[in-house]
Amino acid sequence: MKLKTILISIIYVLVIHVNSFAQSTNLKIEPPFWWIGMNDSKLQLLIHGDNISNYSVKLKYDGVEISQLNKTKNPNYLFLDLIILPEAKSGKMEFVFKSKGKDIISYSYELKTRKNNSKLRPGVNQSDIIYLLMPDRFANGDTTNDNRIVMLEKANRSNPDGRHGGDLKGINNNLNYFNKLGVTAVWINPVLENNMPNYSYHGYAITDFYKVDARFGNNQDYVDLVGDAKSKNIKIIMDMVFNHCGLNHWWMSDLPSKDWIHQFTEFTRSNYRAEVLMDPYASNRDKELMNDGWFDHSMPDLNQKNPYLANYLIQNSIWWIEYSGIDGVRMDTYPYSDQNFMHQWEMRIHEEYPNFNILGEAWLQYESQTAWFQNQALPNRSATYHSIMVTDFPLSYAINSAFNEQDGWTSGLSKLYYTLSKDFLYNDPNSLVIFTDNHDIDRFYSTQHKDFEKWKMGITFLMTTRGIPMIYYGTEYLADGKKNEGDAQLRKDFLGGWPGDTINAFSQDGLNTNQMKAFNFLQNLITLKKNNPSLQTGTLKHFIPVDGIYTYFRIGNDNAFMIVINNGNEAKKVRLNNYSEITNNYRSIRNIDANEFDKIPPQIQIRAKSALIFELK
Ligand code: CA
Known about the structure:
The chain is elongated, with a radius of gyration of 27 Å. Among the domains are: 2-113, Immunoglobulins (Immunoglobulin-like); 539-616, Immunoglobulin-like (Sandwich). An eight-stranded parallel β-sheet has the order 16-15-14-13-10-9-18-17. The chain is an alpha/beta fold. The protein has 15 helices and 26 strands. The longest helix has 21 residues, at 2-22. Calcium ion binds next to loops.
């Protein structure tokens, strides 16, 4: 027995030795593969391995050259610059790492062929209705992946801040639901690995930028989801995070260089005041805290001024676009990253994908700041750079207040009016992404004190004013939740997404009357918007709110829509001759609930606390 054990050991050592030359398992190279035929011929590989910088690298592959070998102070890293010439063919190239004249390690690296449709992505635009969902909280399509041995946090649905088991399969299983509701693009909160001990469900503490979290599925599941969604005319927007990574990211135990992340003698938090970017009196201290401070204890702040990290992030983003076929990127905490770097990233994306959209999260308090961000932080905007969209928080604040307030010079509906009247500040107000709520702020139904009539007024406004509307999952069945009771209250499990759920919002089983009405209400508005370009790109013309009535028009080539909102507590008669500058151009009118067009009457009636939509022809 002993001899047998020794023999097996010898064979084992020999096999390991031979294998270590054939293909090293100790090396990590990122991106894990790349493509031929990219517009930018450059590629920089991050290579991590024991004392790898002591090696020289040899490559013999037609059309690919090593242009430079870069070292950092950490000998375990090499940053290898390659040029991939147009004549290079797809295939596997072999890097040989040599030391003292001997070949020590070999590594096979694949160059793939680009997909044919790479340049043809239509992008997200004003014809779209975006649906935002949190993958851990939407639908559990595969209960066998809820727990993984290597994943630190296990599923615990009784913990509001725990992982609940939702996954990519759950989203894929319900693509027909998105079609039924009518939304055309789905923004999915981050899906990459978050191997953190707790509070990992939100996905914003990424521990591997090239790997889908195993509790959501795998990379191929993500590719399949994007492809399956596309076949049902649904675009997928990927949530990316460049500002920070998770504390358990693999490189945190062996950083390429001290300046890979922002480091302080003690934990230093960001001041979360993106306003310092445009504040003419901002102190350097506040600017530095904003940019360099950590988002949280579990989220080290990445230093995008480090050129190797900058390349890493840009290539990572391009890798996911090319690999998965996504239609857009939502960039988390956009103003928190180095802005010069962000512009460089945008240019690289648009160089590769001219129609591609980036939705920048800019959580700014006022219109002026949001506009500054859209206009100045994106200076390279031009005909070919049309695809930068920015979150419109100021309009969200206005929508949330308007229907709860008595109308006055600056209150109630005037909030909507004043917010939109400041659109002169924006280069492109129509590309703003508008919303009543999202995963970080109070649920709209809660801010409206669970008043269904107010909810309908808000949703009507959202679906008919300028901008690209975004619906937060659960809105369609009046989900509620207040942030001061914890973020988890805003991110409850979608009803019916889990085996055994007694209420199922996908099939509408068990929903109450108002919940079903809410779904139909939103579904009808989405259909109306999709069928009428005037509600997508039509000119907006509005009238100063008077006496609790706000009236505005969306004017297109074939028709126009008149939206009237009564925020008062009494029914009103509204005289249409006030709007004759528009109505005179049309012959007939119909309430969108009616099939027939009629002559335009001198006045219309509107109930208290309600909104009406009319089509003019
Ligand atoms: Ca699952």
